Amino acid sequence: MIGIFDSGVGGMTVAHAVEKALPGYDLVYFGDLARTPYGSKSPETIRGYVQQNIDFLIGKGARLIIIACNSAASVTTEDMLAQFDLPVFDVINPAVARVVGIVNQAKRKMKVGVIGTRATVKSGVYARKIEAAAADCRVISQECPLLVPLVEEGWFDKRETKMILRRYLHPLRIQQVDALVLGCTHYPLLKGLIAPKIGQQVRIIDSSEEVSACLREYLGSHPELDRVLARGGESRFYVSDVTDAAVSTAAKIFGRRIELIRT
């Protein structure tokens, strides 16, 4: 079973992308709605949540884990993950690899924007990894602390959401970035609003799509793990709290009703 967790419903964009990339594989998801957002929490607190979430998913039968939360992935250390005897993927490294590929293909200096929570941006993880792998790339990061609460409330088409997005994206647009990394798995739900505001010529990197492709490639080269993953087409979605907005957002992501199991 493939285990996926996030601070809320945003990580369901990753679960949906995995469903499409690996149809029929069993999934177990945990959304920590009771403690969302993670981006405003301290690194120590977030790491404690990560430990609990991974333990929960392993208890439900997960044989590999996807950390579908940029805030969690940005502060989780390799030493911490080494204590778990199973593969752990995050949404940061596949997105970084995609950016580096774009820069190398362009063979010119590029500016890449990154939008994320305070925790993700303050960690500097995207800028550090991208600039280390692509010398011709300059990373410009922008904290967007209000976007996760807006998505969790289902405010996708509200005037207030559009105004806040415009303000957050304005510095990146002024800098004329060539690509934009959606550094939070909640943000793909706002992609339709983000694209016209940042500029249609800007490449948008969606980490949910990148990590699902990475997982498919990994399983293709690790048949011993692939063989033991259940393929009953069963997806279970656990949450630490249930709200009407979460139920509505889950249905919007998957295009079908999703039962959220409170735990």
Summary of the model, kept short:
Helix 5 packs across helix 11. The chain has 263 residues and is of the alpha/beta class.
Question: Can you describe what's shown?
Answer:
There is one protein chain. The protein folds into 2 domains: 2-90 and 208-262, Rossmann fold, CATH 3.40.50; 92-207, 3-Layer(aba) Sandwich (Rossmann fold), CATH 3.40.50.1860. The protein has a 6-stranded parallel beta sheet with strand order 4-3-1-2-9-10, with helices on both faces. The model has no long low-confidence stretch (mean pLDDT 94). Helices cover 49% and strands 18% of the residues. The longest helix has 17 residues, at 43-59. It has 13 helices and 10 strands. α5 packs parallel to α7 and α5 packs across α11. It has 263 residues and is an alpha/beta fold.
